[in-house]
Specification:
Radius of gyration: 21 Å
Number of helices: 7
Strand order of the largest sheet: 9-10-11-13-12
CATH topology of the largest domain: Zincin-like
Number of strands: 13
Helix content: 25-40%
Oligomer: single chain
Order of helices and strands: EEEEEEHEEEEHEEEHHHHH
Structural class: alpha+beta
Shape: globular
Largest sheet: 5 strands, mixed
Strand content: 15-25%
Length: 364
């Protein structure tokens, strides 16, 4: 039975003490509200772009899953698209001819099943076969697709990196600064955490109509296009703010993605840690000296956000009880980001750089 976005399985259908197999065929709709699988058509060239937003519990809007952070799994993905489309996910696109053939066969079967749906007609189909992912939670899984353009950089000792944007906006991407900030963060976090970037690639994608500033999907971070500053020469303050967001999402690759909270009660530490670490990396990171002197002044904005949120009737403890997954969305506020990161800054000031680094080495 399907009800309220949930598949309900009668216990009489489950075998105790045995492996139970469940197969589902799904025909779903694109969404227009920025969660699940969002669809956007560029008005300048009529090209379609798709991306997912799964945090906190929106993965089940796209496919059936147990949508909570402590249930991790490896993922495989096969996609059939138009030839000119790029498809980005958490892993590399590794086309294997045998699997591509079976994918084409599966799509032919699906096309026959839904033969009345014009949406399934592809002019020049291309298969995208992704390698198996690391064990990750549902909320940091990602699928992005469309005729994106990209810039690429490969630096020895770091994972391959790409920055994607809509074809009509690619020229507006400040990719050199973005790559420099990302590389600086990767070198700093490697030393401070005692472990190198833990995944195999790092893609950053500007997507339209994003509900938030950015989202830390494993190896496929999505950004709000507002950060592109189209037709504008951005001030140092705006460049710093975006660079902080860049380092915040990168910090999540370790704290949140590699090591994940067991339950949403600890969302504050996930977000507060990434916020504090982004400023610490900004203040000490190599190759971004232009931001060092004003970094901690900018941090006051987060601290004041925490103070102002704390004065509202809706205030709550930094670590607060969440009863069900659908309540987690309410925690993305000034307490979980601003007040929590201000607390961690004081914690760091008491312990000192070396002691906190040694503790994190052990933690990771």
């Amino acid at each position: 039975m399907f009800r309220d976005h949930h598949v309900h399985i009668p216990t009489t259908h489950l075998k105790v003490g045995e492996v139970n197999h469940l197969e589902l065929s799904i025909l779903n709709k694109y969404r227009k509200d920025g969660v699940g699988l969002h669809s956007y058509v560029d008005p300048t060239d009529n090209l379609q772009y798709l991306y997912t937003q799964f945090e906190a519990d929106f993965a089940h809007y796209v496919f059936p899953c147990f949508d909570q952070p402590d249930l991790k799994a490896v993922w495989t993905l096969s996609v059939l698209t138009e030839e000119e489309w790029a498809v980005i996910s958490n892993e590399h696109d590794k086309l294997v001819e045998e699997r591509a053939a079976s994918l084409n066969e599966a799509v032919a079967q699906a096309s026959a099943l839904f033969k009345d749906s014009a949406d399934l007609a592809l002019q020049k189909p291309k298969a995208h076969i992704f390698r198996e992912s690391d064990r990750i939670s549902t909320y940091i899984y990602a699928i992005v697709a469309g005729p994106f353009g990209f810039y690429e950089r490969n630096t020895e000792g770091l994972p391959p990196m790409r920055i994607y944007a809509r074809s009509s906006l690619l020229k507006d991407v400040n990719h050199e600064l973005m790559f420099n900030v990302t590389e600086s963060g990767m070198w700093f976090y490697k030393d401070f955490f005692g472990i190198a970037y833990p995944f195999r690639k790092y893609d950053q994608i500007f997507v339209p109509e994003h509900n938030y500033g950015a989202m830390e999907n494993v190896g496929a971070v999505t950004y709000n296009e507002a950060y592109m500053y189209r037709g504008e020469t951005p001030t140092l303050a705006k460049l710093l703010r975006f660079s902080i967001t860049n380092l915040h999402e990168l910090a999540h690759m370790w704290f949140g993605n590699l090591v994940t909270m067991k339950w949403w009660n600890d969302l504050w530490l996930n977000e507060s840690f990434a916020t504090f670490m982004s400023f610490l990396a900004m203040s000490r990171g190599p190759t971004i000296e232009q931001f060092h002197s004003t970094c901690w002044v900018t941090f006051l904005q987060y601290k004041f956000w925490g103070i102002s949120t704390d004065q509202l009737s809706s205030t709550h403890p930094i670590c607060t009880e969440i009863v069900s997954t659908d309540q987690a969305e309410s925690l993305f506020d000034g307490i979980s980001y601003g007040k929590g990161s201000a607390f961690l800054k004081q914690f760091y000031n008491i312990l000192g750089f070396e002691t906190m680094s040694k503790g994190l080495h052990l933690y990771f």
